[in-house]
Amino acid sequence: MTPHSASQRYLSTRGGSYDLSFEDVVLKGLANDGGLFIPEEIPSLPSDWQTQWREYSFQELAFEIFSLYISKEEIPADDLRDIIRRSYNAFRAKDISPIITLDEGKNLHLLELFHGPTFAFKDVALQFLGNLFEYFLFRRNEGKEGANREHLTVIGATSGDTGSAAIYGLRGKKDVSVFIMHPKGKVSPIQEAQMTTVLDANVHNLAVEGTFDDCQDIVKELFADPEINKTHRLAAVNSINWARILAQITYYFHSYFSLCRQTQSSNPTVRFVVPTGNFGDILAGYFATRMGLPSDKLIIATNENDILHRFWKTGYYEKKPVHGVEAEGGFAEDGAKAHPSGVRVTLAPAMDILVSSNFERLLWFLAYRTSETEETNRRRMEAGEKVQRWLSELKSEGGFGVSKEILAAAKEDFESERVSDKQTIQTIKDTYSQTKPSAKQANGHANGTSKPATTGTEHEGHYILDPHSAIGIAASLRSIANTPASTHHISLATAHPAKFSHAVELALKDAPGFSFETVLPEQFVGLEQMEKRVTECKAEWQDVREIVVREVEEERKGERMVYSQGKGEYAPSWLELEKASGGRAILKGSPEEIRGMYAALGQALAAQLPKPSENVETKDGEVDGVKYRLYWPKGAKGGLTTGIYTHGGGYMVGGLDDDDFLCRVISEHTNSALVAIDYRLAPEHKWPAQLEDSMKVYKWAHKNAASFHGDSNKFYTIGGSAGGGLALQVANQVLRDAELKASLKGIIAMVPVALHYDHVPDKYKDMYTAYKDNAKDTPVIDGESMQIFYQHAGVDPKDPDTFVALGDNHKSFPPTYITTCEFDPLRDDGFVLEAALKEAGVPTKHDHYPGFPHYFWIFPSVPESQEYVGKMLGGIEWVKGQM
């Protein structure tokens, strides 16, 4: 492997595999000998890194760091930059991992790592890992069809956050199935809902009757099983996958430079404090410091499952039952345990771990560093032999001890603290009461601007910690008491407090005016009530193997596509709305009657909407007789992703004012420019007048994007109902235009028109039942309504330019986000569209709403409308993240 440096070649911690490529270790995950992959050596930083990297963005730092571990022969520089860009585009914070200062006098800072799609630090690594899987598989499968394509079966275990982050990183990825095991009843309700409400066909959730350690053991047994490895290419998504450790190195450097800018110092003294369970997060810090990042110490902050804390105190790594913190000497057993394995259930469930898998990687480096052997290869072999022996003792005897030299080497870089539940609660209370409006941001952007870092983590200026982050702060305060006042402590905030409502409410129940709703992100509203899919199983790896084999087979046959659910029951909130409004409204009749009903409905709904946001600028204009309205966030400086918005209304009703509120919300909350189009309406103007008008505005916007702060190379089309159809139709035309096609990067198709009920291809007929299910008396529109709309528009049922699911160029489509509603004649248009795009290899994301009719989200009094808008905004961010 000549083009690869030693830091770009990989070996197993147990000595059985050497000279592996980055692609090998990412796709394999776990070595054949049961070991974990590590680079042959840790690279040194360039001599000028402190000056050259100081002003780099998170993404630029990631590129420089990743390039030290990934040969450009494996991933060319431009491809790596693109993977990084797509991985972090969907993060809510511009800085990806911003710092705030909690206590300026104590030099105590918090590194917020929860600004990704699932509000946990693991998004930083798993968004990257998902895109790596996709990149390698695309390259391997180019030109292959059917059974000849390589398929990846991703296996993971989660104590809470890994599962949802992995699912969000892998959902909808072509040629990838993902199986996530979580201990049944031992993750928070929000964490469970984040996983089990994802209904994508390639996502499989397993609730295991056991502990997280049981789940981890099953993963390792599956990777070691020759039977399943003959038929399935298994890949790891837990932090045993090296790519996850690599991705997390970046935020140690990013936070260090943020602190340098704040303190105007070239080399501040820093300690990093890391809430630690499986040892992956703090191991990334170890790699950073061994590369050359200045760090006085890395502090391991554990809960009462404290195998790591005991190791640093005694040199023994033992799976002993956990103890109470009041036990004599801090190490005696008190018999308190939640499971025969010895794992204790705490308020920080993501850290309820008996054995930390990634500790094995550190053990190898400690054994290598303390070896007296001079010859490199022999030294590596001896380190692998030691790790193999230690891990065998752990399995057979429940623990092992290391030499005083190895323990001393461990203490050079690390200290440890154990924090009880009682102390965790007190830390949440104290932090809340002692932080005042507003927590000072410490990061400072390289361009000199500052953007609020927090997302729902403050209440009236008081900072709210989740229990894991609170453990880090408690450990930080102990360290501060024993270090010089000039030492800065950066404590890692690993999750948003909304994910752990029980602990937060327990701590702040007496706080004046506090309500948990104040920190609940809109993405979490109603999440626990949504439809779920999960398989319960015993903690037996053979049972899990059977489930994996069966479900992958069904998925690859297409039997696991999540199609419509058929007629179910209306959601209670919808029935309450109908009762309050005196009946069911359906848009039907003559064009005049439909327009009258639509106008009356619009007037009634407008009165219920809050005041439009003042954070968005608008400007009306006209091109070649077609009116449009521009939207962009106040203070925008250019380069905005731009949405081309086409309203709904059956091609017969609707205009710029009707969707103005929604357009403002989209622009503000996705940091997008938006161009809304007032196209001509039927029956006065037959099809394709609507498409022609939309194309005129698209072309104008492409040429003039800079005038409204847009980026002409980052467009997406967006619309609902007939407007969703237009979003697809415009995209279809743009992709055939040599001058425009490079501009289109995504599609947002909400309850779209995609297929005509009179011309359904045979392969979709069994799944296309929505018109039959919703023929009459369905709220808002029914099958008869659509007949009226199509008749007055004069559409051709066989025209692929109108009904895009019929088209033959789906392979050229960009990533597409789709929504569908159960009680909607257009329901299966969305499902057919999804199937057609997936068949063509197009990344798709699909949110389906059982119990609700077409366009239900326009009714503010329906609580689920907020959920819909939140997920739709998430869909836009997902599309942006694919760009």
Automatic annotation (TrEMBL):
Q: Name one GO molecular function term.
A: pyridoxal phosphate binding
**Cofactors (names):** pyridoxal 5'-phosphate
Q: What class of enzyme is it?
A: lyase
Q: Where is this region: Disordered?
A: 434-457
- Where N6-(pyridoxal phosphate)lysine occurs, the residues are 122
Question: What Enzyme Commission number(s) does the record list for this chain?
Answer: 4.2.3.1
All residue ranges annotated as the Threonine synthase N-terminal domain in the record: 9-88
Q: Which UniProt keywords apply?
A: Amino-acid biosynthesis, Lyase, Pyridoxal phosphate, Threonine biosynthesis
Keyword Flavoprotein among UniProt keywords = no
Q: Does this entry carry the keyword Lyase?
A: yes
Where do transmembrane segments lie in this chain?
Answer: none
- Domain Alpha/beta hydrolase fold-3 as annotated: residue spans: 644-857
Query: Which biological process, per GO, is one annotated for this protein?
Result: threonine biosynthetic process
Q: Which Pfam families match?
A: Abhydrolase_3 (PF07859), PALP (PF00291), THR4_C (PF24857), Thr_synth_N (PF14821)
Where do Polar residues bias regions lie? Answer: 434-456
* Pathway in which the depicted protein is active: Amino-acid biosynthesis; L-threonine biosynthesis; L-threonine from L-aspartate: step 5/5
Kindly give the Gene3D superfamilies that the UniProt entry links to this protein: 3.40.50.1100, alpha/beta hydrolase (3.40.50.1820), Threonine synthase, N-terminal domain (3.90.1380.10)
Which residue ranges does the record assign to the Tryptophan synthase beta chain-like PALP domain? 107-328
Which NCBIfam families does the UniProt entry name for this protein?
thrC
Q: Which family is this protein grouped under?
A: Belongs to the threonine synthase family.
* UniProt-recorded name of the protein: threonine synthase
User: Source organism lineage?
Assistant: Eukaryota, Fungi, Dikarya, Ascomycota, Pezizomycotina
